[in-house]
């Protein structure tokens, strides 16, 4: 997979689906558009898969829905870098060696959202790097964007907000200090973190795979009864 930044090689955005090569639009604003789609509760899961693939590949694919689910899962593994050996090592298994359901997997908490924190991210990039993200739309690669984001200085607004969210209330703080911290944390509280979106995308793909299998089994039984 190629979500991580490797400066010893060129950035690669091509992926093979079957025997055909496709180019993923890895511009950071396009990936953010994809992430926004994933969080849109007005759009059905099935349509998220179809529209999501079209956003990433800039074309509609003429495959059956079961194949589209597999393609979607492959794409989100690339975008969110969820198919690495390191990630596999973190998977929890039951006594039979089967992966436990998603709700039992350890999910690292994150304290930012690429959509809710867009204003802080824009101002921090401009202040720290001199990068105007509006001018970089369609140009700045998602992997470069993530590298920049991860290395923002502590004096930037984005880093300040993340620090507030991560802050724990000291046991020896006065009641006034505790109230101040609570008010700050409430002011910058998130509706959903970035890993909620990424885990949700994986769950969406998995749910659709299960639903497809159930449907196929139902159709098979109906054919047997005819």
Distance between the termini: 46 Å
Gyration radius over CA? 21 Å
The largest pleated sheet is described as: 2 strands, antiparallel
Number of helices: 9
Derived from helix and strand composition plus strand pairing, the structural class reads mainly alpha
Return residue spans where pLDDT drops below 50 for at least 5 consecutive residues: 84-89, 100-107
Number of strands: 2
Mean pLDDT across residues: 79
Judging from the principal axes of the Cα atoms, what is the shape?
extended
What proportion of the residues form beta strands (DSSP E)? Answer: under 5%
H-E string: EEHHHHHHHHH
| Strand order in the sheet with the most strands | 1-2
Helix content: 40-55%
Walkthrough of the structure:
The structure is a single chain. With 226 residues, the protein is mainly α. Helices cover 54% and strands 4% of the residues. The chain is built from nine helices and two strands; from the N terminus they run ββααααααααα. A two-stranded antiparallel ribbon has the order 1-2. β1 (14-17) and β2 (20-23) form a beta hairpin. The protein is extended and about 75 Å long. Mean pLDDT is 79; it is low at 84-89 and 100-107.
Keywords:
mainly alpha
Q: Can you lay out the helices and strands and say which pair or pack?
A:
Blueprint: E1 14-17, E2 20-23, H1 28-38, H2 45-57, H3 65-80, H4 85-89, H5 118-129, H6 142-150, H7 157-166, H8 175-187, H9 194-225
Antiparallel strand pairs: 1-2
């Amino acid at each position: 997979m190629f979500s991580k930044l490797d400066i010893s090689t060129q950035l690669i955005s091509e992926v093979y689906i079957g025997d055909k090569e496709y180019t993923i639009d890895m511009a950071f604003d396009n990936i953010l558009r994809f992430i926004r789609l994933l969080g849109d509760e007005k759009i059905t899961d099935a349509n998220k898969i179809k529209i999501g693939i079209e956003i990433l590949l800039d074309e509609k694919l003429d495959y059956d829905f079961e194949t589209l689910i597999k393609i979607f899962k492959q794409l989100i593994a690339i975008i969110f870098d969820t198919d690495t050996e390191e990630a596999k090592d973190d998977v929890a298994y039951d006594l039979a060696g089967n992966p436990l359901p998603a709700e039992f997997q350890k999910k690292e908490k994150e304290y930012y959202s690429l959509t809710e924190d867009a204003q802080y991210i824009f101002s921090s990039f401009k202040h720290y790097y001199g990068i105007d993200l509006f001018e970089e739309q369609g140009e700045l690669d998602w992997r470069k964007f993530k590298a920049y984001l991860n290395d923002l200085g502590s004096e930037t607004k984005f880093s300040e907000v993340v620090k507030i969210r991560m802050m724990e209330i000291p046991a020896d703080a006065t009641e006034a200090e505790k109230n101040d911290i609570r008010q700050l944390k409430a002011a910058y509280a998130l509706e959903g973190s970035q890993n909620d979106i990424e885990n949700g995308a994986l769950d969406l793909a998995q749910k659709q795979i299960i639903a497809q299998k159930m449907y196929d089994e139902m159709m098979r039984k109906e054919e047997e009864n005819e």
